[in-house]
Amino acid sequence: MLPSPFKAGDKAGYYKTEELLDNEAIFKMANYLARQQLKKGRAISSPSDCFAALQTLLQTLEHEVFGLVYLDQQHCIINHEILFRGTINQASVYPRELIKSALSHNAAAVILFHNHPSGCTKPSNADDQLTEQIKTAFEHIEIRVVDHVIVGHSDLFSYAQSGKI
Q: Is 12 within 8 Å of 19 (Cβ atoms)?
């Protein structure tokens, strides 16, 4: 459902309103559109297909979160979900819980994502170690880790694009 005061435009993908909008209304619409980009059935042909949506959803958070985008065998989105919430500079992540969640969604592949509230998207040593640990755990149950995306205020870091996955 479209957030108020937006209405569907005459052409698909266009929206209109008859009043001035404040930042809150614009952010609500941006988040609505981001969730549409991560909607069930949408094909992910490259990691960048979901970058903008993840950035829109996570960039204003003041605490770290960690989640998964669940993909089917053809890399179409099944769902996306934030699974862990942390503090301003870390979130405790448990690979066992990630695996349980991926299996419950019947995922064939996943994209890991988390934000850095500081805005800096450079992965820490802990990020690198966690990524490797999660990737290894998923390999044992034949679920492919397609990417791990770190979201900042205006930038993203992709483990896949950097050759680290």
A: no
Three-state SS letters, the chain: CCCCCCEECCCCCCEECCCCCCHHHHHHHHHHHHHHHCCCCCECCCHHHCHHHHHHHHCCCCCCEEEEEEECCCCEEEEEEEEEECCCCCCCCCHHHHHHHHHHCCCCEEEEEEECCCCCCCCCHHHHHHHHHHHHHHHHCCCEEEEEEEECCCCEEECCCCCCC
- Number of residues in the chain: 165
Cβ–Cβ under 8 Å, residues 110 and 145 = yes
Q: What is the pLDDT of residues 110-122, one digit of tens each?
A: 999 999 999 999 9
pTM comes to 0.86
Instruction: Report the C-alpha gap between 87 and 38 in whole angstroms.
Output: 25
69's torsion region: left (phi>0), alpha (psi -120 to 50) or beta? beta
